[in-house]
UniProtKB/TrEMBL annotation:
This is C4-dicarboxylate ABC transporter. Keywords: Signal, Transport. It comes from Ignatzschineria indica. GO terms for biological process: C4-dicarboxylate transport; transmembrane transport. The lineage of its organism: Bacteria, Pseudomonadati, Pseudomonadota, Gammaproteobacteria, Cardiobacteriales. The keyword Membrane does not apply. Residues 1-31 form the signal peptide. GO terms for cellular component: outer membrane-bounded periplasmic space.
Length: 344
């Protein structure tokens, strides 16, 4: 059963129960006023997530004129990391699309996407997101009042520093900025580097001032934040994805009239497909932009070098597999072995 069908069934059941009990439906709260959806995120508009939020706004306002409007706040302009989830829970914003790395406090299962070298490629990440295992993670924060509506993929992460990172040993002693994820912290500890959790908005300054001297991200996030200007080398490691979960406040979502909720779900399905279709190209465009600027050398690893990084970082899986769920790891590995690249 799809997420949107499940949701609309539960909305119908909830509405019937309230009517039956003689309580006026919470949907009547929206009767006379247009619904405003505040959608906050931390990246630039020209990135996969930035484009997705704008596509969503455009499609919603076209389909539901006068009924629903969407206000998009990019670039941490309303709330940054560390505030946006609290803001969602108290209703100051209605939709977010944080990277799954930032959801650890609410769901350990989301940490699956952080396990280094778990997914062979972008294609495998997308297939996993569409699988039953992937869909189950969307529902893993319901007890905290957060509903996962969709996955948007950005792309695969690369590693950067002011020295070339070719072997795991090259990372020793470097201070790496990571997102707020224990798995990502352990990934850098595994190569004897010093990870430091830091919000996205602080990365450029952190690197410029030497608070950290290495980081990891997708090409679109490097380029749009000008992070490459303060990193001389980017190693194309593809060691893990940046995956977003489009999330909403469960109470807000359940209070929407069923027809509107259904339309929003359908629009999200279309927008998600479009974001995932565009993401690879946007990252390749920004890789080319970085190379063209000439400030940063992009290093390609040999297959043997890549195996060495993988071998050094893989022990992190064992440490986290119990809390994440061995069944999810197995599901991801099965998708790898069935992915198109595996048979190449
Ligand atoms: C994002 O793409 O939303 C930001 C990821 C990060 O914090 O590195």
């Amino acid at each position: 059963m799809t997420q949107s069908i499940k949701r609309s069934i539960s909305t119908t059941l909830l509405s019937s129960a309230l009517l039956f009990a003689g309580i006026s439906s919470i949907n009547s709260a929206w009767a006379d006023e247009p619904i405003v959806i505040k959608f906050s995120h931390v990246v630039a508009e020209q990135t996969p997530k930035g484009q997705g939020a704008l596509l969503f706004k455009e499609a919603v306002e076209r389909a539901l004129p006068g009924k629903v409007s969407v206000e998009v706040y990019p670039n941490s302009s309303l709330f940054g990391d560390g505030q946006e989830l609290d803001a969602l829970l108290i209703g100051d914003v209605h939709m977010l699309a944080p990277s799954t790395s930032k959801l650890e406090y609410y769901s350990k299962q989301t940490q699956l996407f952080d396990l280094p070298f778990l997914f062979d490629d972008f294609d495998a990440v997308e297939k996993f997101a569409k699988s039953d295992a992937g869909k189950s993670i969307l529902m893993s924060m319901e007890n905290s009042g957060i509903t996962g509506l969709a996955y948007w993929n950005n792309g695969m992460k690369q590693m950067s520093a002011n020295k070339p990172l070719k072997k795991p040993r090259d990372a020793r002693g470097l201070k790496f900025r990571v997102q707020a994820s224990n798995v990502l912290e352990d990934q850098y500890k595994a190569v004897r580097a010093n990870p430091r959790k830091m919000s996205f908005a602080e990365v450029y300054q952190g690197l410029q001032t030497g608070v950290v001297n290495g980081t990891e991200n997708t090409y679109s996030n490097y380029y749009s934040q000008k992070v490459h200007e303060v990193q001389k080398y980017i190693t194309e490691s593809d060691h893990g994805p940046v995956v977003y979960m489009v999330i909403t406040n469960t109470k807000f979502w359940d209070s929407l009239p069923a027809e509107i909720q259904r339309t929003l779900s359908e629009i999200l399905d279309d927008v998600s497909a479009e974001v995932n279709r565009q993401a690879y190209d946007l990252n390749m465009r920004d890789k080319a932009n970085i190379i063209a600027e000439g400030s940063t050398e992009v290093i390609t690893l040999t297959p043997d070098q890549k195996v060495k990084w993988r071998t050094a970082m893989e022990p992190v899986w064992k440490k986290h597999e119990k809390v994440i769920g061995p069944h999810l790891i197995e599901a991801a590995l099965n998708i790898n072995s069935n992915s198109s690249s595996a048979s190449d």
